[in-house]
Design a protein that fits this description.
10 strands, Rossmann fold, binds magnesium ion, alpha/beta, 267 residues, six-stranded mixed β-sheet, 3 domains, binds adenosine-5'-triphosphate
Amino acid sequence: MIQVNDLSFSYTPHDEALRKVSLTIDEGSWVSIIGHNGSGKSTLSKCLVGLLAPTKGEIYIDGLKLDETNLPLIRKKIGIVFQNPDNQFVGVTVKHDIAFGLENQCLPHDVMQEKVMHYAKLVGMEDFLDKEPHQLSGGQKQRVAIAGALAMEQDILILDEATSMLDPEGTREIIELIKYLNTALNKTIITITHDLAFAGMSDRLIVLKDGMNILEGTPKEVFKEEALLKSSHLDLPFGLALYNELSLDPKTDQTLLEALWVFNSTM
Ligand SMILES: Nc1ncnc2c1ncn2[C@@H]1O[C@H](COP(=O)(O)OP(=O)(O)OP(=O)(O)O)[C@@H](O)[C@H]1O
Ligand SMILES: [Mg+2]
């Protein structure tokens, strides 16, 4: 479980990228953090993995306070795939890239090879192990980045804008992978996204605006707050707006309404 209490963070003495953010993320859940550009999503994710030290407030991961002493232990529990997979491709080839994080673990060569193969297969990139980054599509790079994070075998995975650079097919593949990680491997997943239809598939949503947590709940609860979302520059896609509209009408057939919700969650 992740517990964040009154977390504030400033990059300079004059800004407040995060303001008194409090939230809880349950073990095994899939939570999406949504918000407009600059609302503090990536800053929050970097605080959660201990890359940025909060100006104020505390973070607990599985009851362990995130501080300098506990950081090595916390890093074993929580991993991140950063916003731009191009910036984080550090290996010469896919194989080296997936292995990168493992290299500090002093594993025997064959164990390392096995892990790289296992996680490459899990993301469907086993036929690309010797390819260089420029030979890969955006979606493939994203999957390699996810494999590299998965190889660290942490229970919690943060994916920052994992689908924003992908076409619909690439997006669908990542969604399937996330569902598998969450349901079959029981990983806690935190996705950061602008895409409300994608966010709607998670268990809970947290909405950030100007560094503040202004709204949270199940997707149905959050999407009902259309005016608040709009004021945060988050526009509901047509299908979700239609769902809201129809759900307000007592004459709407409930089976049809539920079917529309399910349809909205199938990309
Ligand atoms: N390295 C930095 N130095 C100074 N200010 C920064 C830095 N990184 C982010 N900021 C500022 O902090 C605020 C929050 O930025 P952050 O990147 O967390 O937002 P975000 O919600 O992830 O945005 P996006 O949707 O564009 O990825 C913004 O005002 C941004 O300009
Ligand atoms: Mg960001």
